[in-house]
């Protein structure tokens, strides 16, 4: 079991230089393309509160990933997701960006909705995921498909920070994705930009003018003002991230949506993350092998190849892959079929979920093993007051050995999205006078997310304290 430093960094959303520095602290001198063993990767990951999972279903030994040489790496466009409270203008913003970028005379100016689109900003490009909101973002993360580089947080200037604004902040922070704030609806008479900045400061999103480091833009998605400067800001943020990809290796990416189209058959949109995808390439998408019969861009035009950070519609699937499935070009068609068959077999054996999830029952052992230093908790409760009380009480449980972090707290039932967040972040869920919805319950069982329900705050606090100390009574 080996992985290169650069690959591990990519998976952990960190710069390779950061990992190299950390390894040096641990007494290991490595280069970016050096391979490290699973054990070292695990120790490294735990330093950053990530879990290394030895997953069999999408085991990369099934398909050998081509290595990156430094000279293969070139700048790639950033991939952006728009988040924010309902009605704050996410859809309007995505439409405004799309329409301001349509070159006059271009095929009727029509872009197809394929789940993502690419725009030109000066001589650079930016990719936008077309499904706004943190639900899609978190669902993809829960499936291990973290593709967003930058989040644009839309906050309506008249409304200010609202519950879903806060949720979006939590989701983006949890994913370690930088946030650019777009204060929208500045055309309205009751717009209050300073109030938005004030409110966001409480969440550590502080504008540079106030001594912080968050990039803010003032826009009107309706009047299409400030859009260019927002795009420039995205480029600026992207530059800081030093996003690079190999343009020459076999293509790899993630499925972002799939559909069955009359006449065309199965059509999936894939975002290529590295390599260049070409017509004729053999591939495996999730458990399905295939061969690229045709490629279409976000304008519906037939194309021959798709470089990194390109959303592309693909024809040539043998089954409908789920959103979030890994997409990998293989050396031969035979290999694609073999890998697909192997994965289908593993999936049948239920090995797809070969991921150790944290629960109150295994918490103490995990602390002892040193595999976690942080217990992440999602708190849901019937009313705002009890949620706050429970959050405060739980956070006080932090010890030297284990830090307790509430990654999301809100009033309301335990819903699908809470479970996805917990699954993606390896968190447990504590419900106070609330239950999971049936759908949330189903996902929790599948993803093995621990949901604990309480009617007394004291009981919740005591249970978690006992679990941290290894004194939890068995859950009967
Ligand atoms: P979403 O739920 O966040 O996707 O919000 P929408 O994009 O659907 O916008 C919600 C409403 O706000 C719509 O009626 C939009 O026309 C309106 N809206 C969006 N942006 C602006 C803006 O910049 N100014 C004004 N005045 N209205 C806006």
UniProtKB/TrEMBL annotation:
GO terms for cellular component: cytosol. Keywords: Cytoplasm, GTP-binding, Initiation factor, Nucleotide-binding, Protein biosynthesis. Residues 78-226 are annotated as: G-domain. Residues 75-244 form the Tr-type G domain. GO terms for molecular function: GTP binding; GTPase activity; translation initiation factor activity. Its main location: cytoplasm. It comes from the Bacteria. GTP binds at residues 84-91, 130-134, 184-187. The keyword Transcription regulation does not apply. It is found in: Cytoplasm. One of the essential components for the initiation of protein synthesis. Protects formylmethionyl-tRNA from spontaneous hydrolysis and promotes its binding to the 30S ribosomal subunits. Also involved in the hydrolysis of GTP during the formation of the 70S ribosomal complex. Belongs to the TRAFAC class translation factor GTPase superfamily. Classic translation factor GTPase family. IF-2 subfamily. This is Translation initiation factor IF-2. It comes from Sediminispirochaeta smaragdinae (strain DSM 11293 / JCM 15392 / SEBR 4228) (Spirochaeta smaragdinae). The chain holds residues 278 to 753 of 852 of the full protein.
């Amino acid at each position: 079991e080996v992985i290169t430093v650069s690959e591990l960094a990519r998976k952990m959303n960190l710069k390779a230089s950061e990992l190299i520095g950390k390894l040096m602290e641990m007494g290991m001198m490595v280069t970016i393309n050096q391979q490290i063993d699973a054990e070292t990767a695990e120790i490294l990951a735990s330093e950053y509160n990530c879990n290394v999972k030895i997953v069999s279903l999408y085991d990369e030994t099934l398909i050998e990933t081509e290595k990156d040489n430094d000279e293969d790496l070139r700048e790639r466009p950033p991939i952006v997701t728009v988040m924010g409270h309902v009605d704050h203008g996410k859809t309007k913003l995505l439409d405004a960006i799309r329409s301001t970028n349509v070159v006059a005379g271009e095929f009727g100016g029509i872009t197809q909705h394929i789940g993502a689109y690419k725009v030109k900003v000066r001589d650079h490009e930016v990719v936008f995921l077309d499904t706004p909101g943190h639900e899609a973002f978190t669902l993809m993360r829960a499936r291990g498909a973290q593709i967003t580089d930058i989040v644009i947080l839309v906050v309506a200037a008249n409304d200010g920070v609202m519950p879903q604004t806060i949720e979006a902040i939590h989701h983006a922070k949890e994913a370690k994705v930088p946030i650019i704030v777009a204060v929208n609806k500045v055309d309205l008479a009751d717009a209050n930009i300073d109030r938005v900045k004030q409110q966001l400061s409480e969440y550590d999103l502080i504008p540079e003018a106030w001594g912080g480091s968050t990039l803010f833009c003032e826009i009107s998605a309706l009047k299409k003002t400030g859009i260019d400067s927002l795009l420039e800001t995205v480029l600026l943020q992207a530059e800081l991230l030093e996003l690079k990809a190999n343009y020459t290796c076999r293509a790899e990416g993630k499925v972002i949506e799939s559909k069955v189209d009359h006449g065309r058959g199965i059509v999936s949109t894939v975002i290529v993350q590295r390599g260049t995808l070409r017509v004729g390439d053999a591939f495996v998408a999730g458990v399905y092998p295939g061969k690229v019969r045709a490629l279409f861009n976000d304008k519906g035009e037939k194309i021959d190849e798709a470089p990194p950070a390109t959303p592309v519609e693909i024809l040539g699937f043998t089954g409908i892959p789920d959103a979030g499935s890994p997409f990998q070009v293989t050396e031969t068609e035979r290999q694609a079929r073999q890998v697909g068959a192997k994965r289908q077999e593993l999936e049948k054996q239920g090995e797809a979920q070969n991921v150790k999830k944290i629960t109150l029952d295994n918490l103490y052992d995990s602390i002892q093993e040193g595999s976690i230093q942080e217990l992440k908790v999602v708190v849901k409760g019937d009313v705002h007051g009890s949620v706050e009380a429970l959050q405060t009480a739980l956070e006080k449980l932090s010890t030297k050995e284990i830090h307790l972090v509430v990654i999301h707290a809100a009033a309301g039932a335990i819903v699908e999205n809470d479970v996805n967040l917990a699954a993606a972040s390896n968190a447990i869920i504590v419900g106070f006078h609330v239950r999971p919805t049936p759908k949330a319950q189903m996902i929790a069982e599948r993803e093995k997310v621990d949901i604990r329900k309480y009617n007394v705050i004291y009981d919740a606090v005591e249970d978690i304290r006992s679990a941290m100390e290894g004194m939890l009574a068995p859950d009967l």
